[in-house]
Design brief:
The protein has 6 helices and 8 strands; from the N terminus they run E-E-E-E-E-H-H-H-E-E-E-H-H-H. The protein has 251 residues and is of the alpha+beta class. The strands form 2 sheets. The protein has a 5-stranded mixed barrel with strand order 1-2-3-5-4. The protein has a 3-stranded mixed β-sheet with strand order 6-8-7, covered by helices on one side. Helix 1 packs antiparallel against helix 2 and helix 2 packs antiparallel against helix 3. The structure holds zinc ion. The site of zinc ion has 7 residues, from loops.
């Protein structure tokens, strides 16, 4: 087996045999791969602290393209300690990891990799995880085969006089093509467009109206339910903690 190295993040971990784990790692160069972390559950193992979900860094491993690779070591870039200290942030991070796990296959998806890392880094910096998760969920829609046209009218291609969004047609609708679709808040239309265009890496702060962010989340929930066929355990958990009021969410 060949020794390779790649930036990566652990999406999932499961215990394997007496003392090992199998990690699902999303790597920048090799896509999503299974890596065996041998003996990492032993108290003295040097792999112990780097074999958990959300660890992000430079992974060195014996690469097995069609099977299980074997971990050598990880130069950790970020442990996301701030995220790990907040139940809200953990819930959102789990959602992002689980959604990524559903989207990514064996192939390298370096844009998605960069988007995931930037989103997590911004949550780590203290920017509202709810809005960041919305932006992430919107930006990955094309990878799920149901992207939205948010720079012009989906029907005629005009970028003028956008009045609403037509979920059935998958994009904005202009005044001329409007045919009794439900009218969406113009602020939400603008927010959708900005969210699609924004470079997450460059976000410094997001001070937005809570109601608007909630509308955005609701819009995405409905759209995901209708078109992606994805249901995530982490999403249900997220909704439950919000309902219970455990969360002290920042907007
Ligand atoms: Zn039109």
């Amino acid at each position: 087996m060949e020794i390779v190295k790649s930036m990566g993040i652990i999406l999932k971990e499961i215990n394997y045999s007496e003392s090992s784990k199998i990690l699902t790692v999303f790597t920048k160069e090799y896509g999503k791969i299974g890596i065996l972390s041998k003996g990492c559950r032993n108290i003295r193992s040097k792999l112990r602290s780097v074999s958990t979900r959300l660890i992000y860094g430079f992974f060195h491993f014996y690469y097995q393209p069609n099977g299980l690779s074997t971990l050598i070591c990880v130069d950790v870039e970020n442990t996301f300690s701030h995220i790990l200290s907040s139940i809200d942030d953990i819930a959102y991070a789990n959602y992002l990891l689980e959604l990524t796990d559903k989207i990514v296959e064996g192939d390298a998806e370096s844009d998605l990799f960069d988007l995931l890392i930037s989103t997590l880094e911004k949550i780590e910096e203290g920017i509202t995880p709810k809005m960041l998760s919305n932006i992430f969920s919107l930006k990955v829609l094309p990878l799920l085969g149901c992207g939205l046209v948010l720079d012009e009218c989906v029907s005629c291609g005009s970028s003028e006089n956008i009045v609403t969004i037509d979920i059935e047609q998958g994009g904005f609708i202009c005044k001329k093509c409007y045919a009794n679709q439900m009218i969406v808040d113009p602020k939400l239309i603008q927010l959708l467009r900005l969210s699609m265009e924004v470079d997450v890496k460059k976000i410094k702060k997001l001070s937005l109206d809570t109601t608007l962010v909630d509308e955005f989340s609701k819009f995405l929930d409905d759209y995901y339910e209708k078109y992606t066929g994805i249901s995530l355990k982490s999403k249900t958990f997220l909704k439950n903690i919000m309902k219970l009021g455990v969360s002290n969410e920042k907007i």
